[in-house]
Design goal:
Helix content: 10-25%
Number of strands: 11
Order of helices and strands: HEHEHEEHEEHEEEHEE
CATH topology: Rossmann fold
Strand content: 15-25%
Strand order of the largest sheet: 3-2-1-4-5-11-10
Distance between the termini: 40 Å
CATH superfamily: Vaccinia Virus protein VP39
Oligomer: single chain
Number of domains: 1
Radius of gyration: 17 Å
CATH architecture: 3-Layer(aba) Sandwich
Structural class: alpha/beta
Number of helices: 6
Largest sheet: 7 strands, mixed
Length: 247
């Protein structure tokens, strides 16, 4: 039952992955993985920025018959909780700590996101997802992650990634004061709500993002599923969702 804590629901004091109901959001995205991303129970999955298992928990019921899950994150507490609570009961679920610098989440990190190699072999995964990861990454870091996604995703594999996308509609809503995020600080190809710590929330120009997908051999599955963050009346989720297939 959604809203009720279980053994696979972390204490509220440990949840650092944003607002909203931990279980409900996990269940929401499981539906998107299956219905929009065509995820099958026997496929190999990579969760980039797995946090404290919000997406992993519902997948424990879904991935079977050879299906497997790999997740990595930069926050130690999240990885430790997942290793303690999830992996012992679901040995096909693995979690790795990646000590990557992020001004907001890991200011003492050893490695640059712009240079980090995902710790997996080429073409290891059928399905890769990043939930609210590129909404906290600068362009040079995101560029490398796109490259790594293209490297470890199998041909014909799919990825699902969320964004704050700037286009004619969202910019109009921002200018009208209807967006919950103002993105008032403008840079080349992106905007942020905090000039001193731009990683806090970042929105990218949609055409720039479309070019990034194309540059790394990822074909966007139309339409993009736009979110409610900017005050839209018609939306799917909170953030904008893009699904793409590797050529």
């Amino acid at each position: 039952m959604l809203g009720r804590r279980t053994e696979l629901t972390p204490p509220r004091s440990k949840i650092f992955v944003g607002c909203g109901d931990f279980q409900a959001i996990g269940e929401e995205f499981l539906r998107y993985f299956a219905e929009l991303g065509a995820l099958k129970p026997n496929e190999k999955v990579l969760d980039v920025g797995c946090g404290i298992g919000r997406m992993a928990v519902p997948l424990t019921r879904y991935l079977k018959d050879g299906g497997s899950y790999e997740g990595f994150d930069i926050v130690t507490d999240g990885i430790n909780w997942c290793r303690k609570k999830i992996t012992p009961n679901y040995p096909h679920f693995h979690f790795q700590l990646s000590d990557i610098y992020n001004k907001l989440f890991n200011p003492k990190g050893r490695y640059k996101a712009s240079e980090y190699n995902f710790p997996y072999d080429k073409e290891s995964f059928d399905f890769i997802f990043l939930i609210s990861v590129f909404t906290h990454m600068l362009p040079q870091d995101m560029e490398n992650y796109f490259s790594q996604i293209g490297r470890v995703l199998k041909r014909g594999g799919r990825c699902l990634i969320t964004f704050f996308l700037l286009n004619k509609e969202s910019l109009k809503l921002i200018d009208a004061g209807l967006s919950r995020l103002d993105f008032k600080h403008e840079f080349n190809e992106y905007r942020t709500i905090d000039q001193d710590t731009p990683e806090y929330d970042i929105a990218y120009n949609e055409e720039f993002i479309r070019r990034r997908f194309n540059s790394y051999g990822l074909n966007i599955v139309e339409p993009i599923h736009y979110g409610s963050w900017c005050g839209r009346r018609s939306f799917l989720s909170d953030q904008d969702i893009i699904i793409a297939i590797k050529k």
